[in-house]
Amino acid sequence: MTAAPDLSLWAAARRRLLADPVARLGLAVLGLIALACLVGPFLTGHPYERIYYDYPRTPPSLQVYPRPETVGPALERLALRMRVRAEDVTVEDGTVRMVLAADKPVDDRALTFFARSDLFGPATLLGRSEDGRRLTVSVPVRETRFLLGTDALGRDLLTRILVAGRVSLALGLMATGVALLIGVAYGAAAGYLGGAVDAAMMRLVDILYALPFVFFVILLVVVFGRSVALVFLAVGAVEWLDMARIVRGEALAIRRQDYVRAAEALGVGTGAILRRHVVPNALGPVAAYAALLIPRVILLESFLSFLGLGVQEPMTSWGVLIAEGARSIETSPWMLVAPALVLVATLIALNALGDRLRDALDPHTA
Questions:
Q1: What are the boundaries of each domain within the chain?
Q2: Do the Cβ atoms of 342 and 165 come closer than 8 Å?
Q3: Which residue among 56, 209, 211, 305 is the one 20 to 30 A from 90 at the CA level?
Q4: Which residue ranges traverse the bilayer (predicted)?
Q5: Under CATH, what is the fold of the domain 9-43+150-360?
């Protein structure tokens, strides 16, 4: 009977991670949120930038809009704009049949007001009186749903939350990728080279730590203007500092290992040692920290957007939506609650997954 082969660090970590119910739940939540953000905007039936002028600050509901009691007042408002009177109004099977009357002949072009409305579709002319002062028309009612309500401008909040998730998650992943790329290379080089080189490199990190982050972002906004790329640059330029410190500490320990000394004795170059020995053996803590860095970046982007320094209209992010909701919390609390709940669920899932990944990559874990 042959013994089972020993698992590598990554294989053992993957097995422990998948056996953890909290880690599986975090992965499931993240997967559902990511899938909803990718596919959901195509299924809601509302473009994220579409403004429904007849539905500002509409509360969340499973019912279809417009409500039956709102059709009559909406027709009266349209008739007033068309300078006609709506008479003999009947609503049946989602279609409104009425007579438009006026003291002088009614211009057919006035019927375009129906198509411009968010409540009705294009009108069909069924008949006209001989003097042209009475038109019989049929107008379909546009049925729509706003499951999470609308914002102050009348835009569907569910669609905007899903589109905002694309931006926030993409920024979190990209900024984390930049932090990994710069921080791992910088920290590995500083820790392995040591001495005066290490001291000089880490003093630069200390100087960058001392810079006020918000002041740095404001300076970038003044020079380059507001854009998503600016947020990505600002966050990525700061978050690699912690990564560099972590990798440097690992590299200081790895450089004293026998396999590194053997590679040096064989004449292997510094670049090859960093690439083959230092960086691969430091990836355990790096992977765990990267999983915890993503929620930090998302929260930081939300903070910048809340201050008005982040993503700009018509694009949106969770931070932008939360900032808009905070300004309308007294009259429209759903505008704050809905995006905040999605952001909180994402951050909790990422933090839980990062904690479990850190434990799974611990070689002393049983």
A1: 9-43+150-360, 68-140
A2: yes
A3: 56
A4: 22-43, 169-193, 213-238, 286-311, 331-353
A5: MetI-like fold (1.10.3720)
Element (H, E) at 295: helix 283-306
Task: Quote the pLDDT of residue 130.
Answer: 84
CA distances from 333 to 324, 337, 351 (A): 11, 6, 27
Residue type for 52, please? Y
Report the DSSP beta bridge partners of residue 91: 96
| pTM, rounded to two decimals | 0.80
Task: Using alpha carbons only, give the angle 52, 102, 139 rounded to the nearest 5 degrees.
Answer: 40
Does residue 120 or residue 298 have the better pLDDT? Answer: 120
Convert the pLDDT of each residue in 149-199 to its tens digit: 999 899 999 999 999 999 888 888 888 888 888 888 898 898 888 888 889
The tens digit of pLDDT for each residue in 49-89 reads 899 988 999 999 888 888 888 888 888 888 888 888 888 88
Cα(first)–Cα(last) distance of the chain, in Å?
A: 24
**Distance from C-alpha of 176 to C-alpha of 293, rounded to nearest angstrom:** 6
Look at phi and psi of residue 145 and say left if phi exceeds 0, alpha if psi is from -120 to 50, else beta: beta
Ramachandran class of 94: left when φ > 0, alpha when ψ lies in -120 to 50, beta otherwise: left
pLDDT in tens, 191-242: 888 888 889 998 988 888 887 777 777 777 777 777 777 777 777 777 788 8
Q: Residue 124 above 80 pLDDT?
A: yes
18 burial level (CB within 10 Å; 0-12, 13-18, 19+) = exposed
Distance CA 156, CA 52 (A): 8
Helix H, strand E, coil C: the string for 110-131 is HHHHHHHCCCECCCEEEEECCC
The pLDDT of residue 71 is 87
**Calpha distance 358→366 (Å, rounded):** 14
Q: Is 319 helix (H, G, I), strand (E, B) or coil?
A: helix
Architecture per CATH, domain 68-140, reads as 2-Layer Sandwich (3.30)
